[in-house]
Design brief:
globular, alpha/beta, 45% helix, Rossmann fold, 8 helices, 6 strands, two-stranded antiparallel ribbon, 2 domains, 232 residues
Length: 232
């Protein structure tokens, strides 16, 4: 399969394949809001983080066959603007879970050896990182200072090749060079949104995990969430 990455989307709305045209209904989003508010009243969101995420995953999974006719861009916009969640990060998390559910079946059906895992280099602990760099990105030396080592070991045990990349231009080069049939990516919300739109247009199934601490250096991801996606 030859992938051709399209230029950045223009203002005109493009229709995506029918399988991509789903949006959670308002009742689902309201139920998510109630669940999060309930957890907040009990105490710290951090304390109940896993439970809240599980509720969001459960509720978004039920939304994939409701409300056709909107593009992935509309899904992100609607989930972010109308969910009314306590924090923008929960609206973002909900939107990503909607996208994951849209692509879950086709992603899971793809052989592990035909998938790749894309990790951002900002997960590295740059002060102590021993990784080397070449045209395929950073190569982990498994020092254990960050989560990359564990995640990569789990991925490659399943035959999923891992790339630790330093930017969007490298992502495009890796996809063109290695021609994966499915992709799992870890990134901040905006990069996931843009990547999902591009991959949707070339019909490449994908899953994504949102960074729990973003920025330019020393970012963090929930390794268990990534491993959960690797098991699909």
């Amino acid at each position: 399969m030859e992938l051709v990455l399209l230029p950045e989307a223009k203002s005109e709305e493009k229709q995506l394949p029918q399988a991509q045209q789903v949006v959670p209904d308002s009742d689902t989003l309201k139920e998510i809001e109630k669940q999060v508010e309930s957890e907040t009243k009990k105490g710290s969101i951090k304390k109940n983080l896993i439970d809240i995420k599980d509720k969001i995953k459960e509720l978004t999974a039920r939304s994939v066959n409701i409300g056709i006719g909107l593009s992935i861009a509309d899904v992100f916009a609607k989930a972010s603007k109308t969910s009314g969640l306590v924090d923008e990060k929960w609206a973002n998390y909900t939107a990503i879970e909607v996208m994951n559910n849209l692509n879950k079946d086709s992603y899971a059906k793809t052989a592990s050896t035909e998938k790749i895992l894309l990790l951002p280099h900002c997960l590295r602990r740059m002060q102590v990182c021993k990784a080397t760099f070449d045209e395929d990105g950073w190569h982990c030396k498994h020092c254990g200072a960050c989560s990359i080592s564990l995640i990569q070991e789990k991925a490659e045990a399943k035959g999923i090749k891992t790339f630790v990349l330093s930017g969007g231009s490298m992502v495009k080069k890796i996809i063109m060079k290695h021609q994966p049939k499915a992709i799992l990516g870890v990134a901040c919300f905006n990069e996931i949104k843009m990547g999902s739109e591009a991959l949707g247009e070339v019909n490449v199934p994908h899953q994504a995990v949102l960074l729990k601490k973003d920025g330019c250096v020393n970012t963090e991801v929930d390794a268990n969430e990534v491993i959960e996606k690797l098991e699909l």
